[in-house]
Structure formats: structure tokens, C-alpha cells
Specification:
9-stranded mixed β-sheet; 8-stranded parallel β-sheet; alpha/beta; 14 helices; about 650 residues; Immunoglobulin-like; about 25% strand
Amino acid sequence: MDKAYKIVWRGCGDYTDRAYFESFLQSVTQGGRVLEELNLPICEPATHPYFPLDALRSACGGFQEAAALARRYGMRVGINQWPAFGAEEVYAADDGHEMPFGPMVGYDGRIARRLACPTSPEFLAYTREKFKIYAGAGPDFIWIDDDCRFTHLGTVQYPCFCPRCVAGFEGGRFASREALVDALNQPENSALRRKWSEYGAQRLAEYCRTAREAVEEINPAIDVNLMTVGYSHTTFSGDYIEKCMAAAKSRAGRPGHGFYWDEEPRKMIDKIMEVARQVQRYPAQVLPDVQLEEDSCPRTPLNMAANIRVVLAALSIWAGCNGIAMNHLPGAGGSRPLAYSRYEFDLWRHRRAFMDQYLSFSEGLPALGIWVADNEFMAAGMDTKEKGWFHEDDPDYSVEKVNKEWPCFGSAISADPAHAYATLLQGKVVDTYSDEQIDEIFQKPVLLDGMALEALEKRGFGGRTGVRLAGRRLGLVEKMANAAVNEDFSGVTRTGIFHPTYLLEPLNSRVEILCTSPIPGAAEERPCVTRYGHVTVLGYSPYQFTGTVAKQTQLRNLLRADGAPVLLEPVDPYEISRVSPWVRGNGNRVSVLLVNTGFDPALPFEVCIRGSWTQASLLLPTGERRPVAPVYDGSFTRVRVEGLAPWDFLAVLAGE
């Protein structure tokens, strides 16, 4: 079934300026539409949670006039409500009116005078009236923005520990905030930390439920949708996405977070993996309408190239989105306030055919690749022995280290554990899993780094890897061993100058040594990369400085042995480019989005799709679908790609 990639604008400048707004509508509809849906913000840019209701009614009047005009151009129009709870910004103290609600309180007792607690009866009553006013303005939908959360709302840390929230937890068994915080910090209380995370999700969901019920009083046909944040931002409230979307009865989702500009272009991989992890938790009724939040806050349009924005949109389809909500279009002022956007509008018109076809072909296909193990309850499972609980920014628990190089050199990664062919364990993430979850992970091939091995040993699972940790040393090199996966690169070395070497000791003769580290001043060489069955321990700088022909050859051969559904092989094995593959597929069809994440043109390579496929084509950025003659080698179907310009993209489509 043909699908259309939806283009949404979240804001468009001053929509109460009739002349400007009409010129905007003409710009995005003439010569090929680049807008189907418009979210008009109300209350921005205020961060104060209290907007007097009379003023809100007046603002909604401006929305109604703009919405009527936009609908004449064939658009759906809704309200983007913001902020939810406010923000404890320093300048908010100068806004001239006091917040008439119970404030949030941090774990350390700090009171946030400009940040409303979502359990405050006064705030919930105000929320109900506010959403009734919104609904009365006749929007097609209302968005709750991503500040419906408990972290990163200003200077207050890990709220809310107000007396009401403390009393509402665990039947009020904690007499004070201090007693509760002390209990949450105790290393043995991981179950209590999980309950607090679940309680956070419940409190956020109550806010969403209040908004939904208020809208239903006026018009049940109006959707209340939710923008969400990524898990590197916070896992303090666990499964809040599922709970909040259920409470709001959302029918659309907007995965956000991960502000991204293009001064560090490869960080778009961080962004798109954040998006994929959020979509992975979206309920079924939301999946037909998932809009990438093109988070270019604070809406300075020239801080990201239009071509990069289009690449990000293509990646968003792989991540499970079927539209984009763009956030960077204010009027420039002057006599031609939209002239600066002409190139971008034309670019979208020329790339729509690609987006529509790639979306139509990939719709319903699961993401395939290595599952980069994550956990929406990561915070609840963290080790609190050294620092206590309230520090989510511990890099030992980061799931983003692999993003730096693996996907850029051709390794397909994924946020979908159910359809992944292998799992990557990074750092201390394994701390946050139950024994049963660890058992399940080892049912498939596993790749892990030295810190993950250390964490597994503490949990009693080290034997699954076939090795034990024999020490850590700085300043060593990695040397390729005489192993089949290394082909003819035995003896080649590389240096990872910033990272310790995890030295390994095999526990039995079935362990294959893939790399060693020579010990200075000694004749011995100690193993640092090993393979035992389908478990590979990468003890030497696995995520950085892997850009050597030898290391990439080894990694590609390991992934082939693990069952990778798609591999990229250079036509000349010494000419490896920075092409990143993003795979979706099943037994009937496979789509492989390819992005050149380097500044050199990609040299010829082959997309190797496991199994025999008789039909294949290249989908070019222009939307042209060019049939190709695939070659089956007995294991993989090979589709040759002659090259790819820097930061350009195309897709290989195989099957029906």
C-alpha cells in the first residue's frame, strides 16, 4: 500500500500576523506541497506554568483565526501546548506573577518556585480548565510537549519529593523526604528504586489523563498526542511513554530529544537511535502517525543545512517515523521574511518521491541488526555504591559509545531486541538486567566490551564468555592473532590511546584468541579479543580508532559468522568507505538505507543481503527506482553500488 511521508511544521513564525501567515501558507503549498499539518504553539516562549485563563482564551482566539485560514489551504491544524509544568529558569522570577500551585521539590529539598508539581490538586484543576479552553478553540489535535517529565527542567534535581509525592508513595510508609532519599540511595534497594521510577510514570500519566478527560468533555474527537524524550536524556521515570500515551489515548507520537545541528554531523546517529528507542515503546494505535521532532531549538534555521535535514528525515523512516515535525521556521523579518527558505522548500519537493517510496516499501518491516542493549529502567538498576542514586550521567551506563564508529563503517545496529540477530553489551548496562533477562540475551550471539565482562563476572555470568578478566593495563596495543576472521592481517597492530586494555584469560581450550596485547618488557602476549561459541569479548578499544582495514575486516567476518542479515563489502577489500546501513526486513522483502557518513565519496561496494533474492533495485534520492541484477553467491545476494557522494543517501530494495 502506498504511503505518504507527512511534513508537519511545529510553529511558523507569528501566525497572528495575517499578511505574513498567508504568505507562509502560499509558500508551502504552491509548486508542490511541503506541509500537510500545522502545529501552532500557544504560550511560547514563556516557561512559567501559569498562563492566566483569560489571556489563554484570547490567545486561542488568535489560533482560531489562523486555523480557519490554514484549513482553506487543505491543512489539519492543532495546538502545541507548552510548557507543561514550567521550568526553573533564572529569568522566570521576573515574569511578574506568582505560581498558584504546589511546587516541585528536588531530592535535596530545593523548592522550585516556578515549576508545578503534577500531583498538585490546584495544578490539575487548572490543567483541566486549560485543556477545555484549548478544545473549545476547535483544533484537530492537541500536543503535550516533551517537558511532561521530571528531569532537566532547570536547576532543581530529580523532583518531585514534595510532601504530597512522598506521602503518595508506597502507602506513605516514609515519614519524610530525607528518609525516602536515604532509602533510595541504599545499594540493596534496587526494587525500591524501580517502584519510585514506576511511581514517576504514574504521576506523569495522571497529568495526561487529566488533559484527555478535559478534552473529552468538549469534543472527544480531538486527539491528545504526546511528544517524548530519549532515554539518554532520562530513564528516571521508567515506562512513562507507555503509561502517558495510554492515559492520553494518544493517536500520534513525536519522538524528540537529542538537539542536533550539523557541526558534528555524525551525531545524527545518536539522534536517530534515540528516536528508534522511543518508537520501540509506542503503542500500536500511535504507530500510523509518528513524527520525528526535528529538534533545532532555538529555531535558528541556518544552523543546519537543508540537505542534512533531509538525510535525517530519511533515517527517521528507518527509525519508525512516517513524518517529520519541523521546528526551525520563524519569519526572517524584512521585506521577504520567507525568502531564506526557498532552497529548502524546493529540496523537499524534489525528495518527497524518495521518502514516499522508501516509507511504502519499509512499512511494517521490523528493524534488523545488532541490538544495542538499553533499558527504560536504566536508572533504577544503576549501581549506587559509590555516588548514590541521583546521577544519571554516568558514562559507564551509556548506550551511545558504539554510535561513534560501528554504524559508520557498515555495521547495522538496531533498537529492536526481538528481531535483532545479536546483542551488544556496553559498559555496565548489564547491571540493570535481571538474571532471567541476561539468560535470554545469551540465547543469541553476544558482543561485549571489557567493562561488560567485569559486570557479568560480578553477577556470576562470566563463564558464559569463556574467559575471565585477568587485568587492565594502559598504553598497550592490539595485535591481530593468527585466526580465520583476521584473514591475512595476522600481526597487524593498532593503538587505542585513550582506553585501558582488558586482558583476558581463556577458561578452556574452545576459546579462540583473535587479538593479543604484547606486554612491554615481557615475552608474553596476553589475549584481549576472544570468541567462545557465539560470544565475542572485545577487550581493546572496541568503539574508537577502529578505522583500520584489518579491524574492519575482522569485525565484518565476526558479524557474518553471527548471522548478520546485511553486510557491506568493499569491491576492493582495502578500499573501505564510511557508508552506514540501516536495515528493515522480513522473509519477503528487505530495505537497506545507505548514508555516506564521510567527507569522501564512497568507493564501490556491495550490499550483501543474506539469502537468495531475485528482485532488487536502487532507490535514488530523486525517487527514481532503478532495477539492478543481483548476484547470489550461495549465502548472500549481492547488489553493487558504484559510489555515494558525501552525506548523500540511497536505498537498496530487495523482494516484492
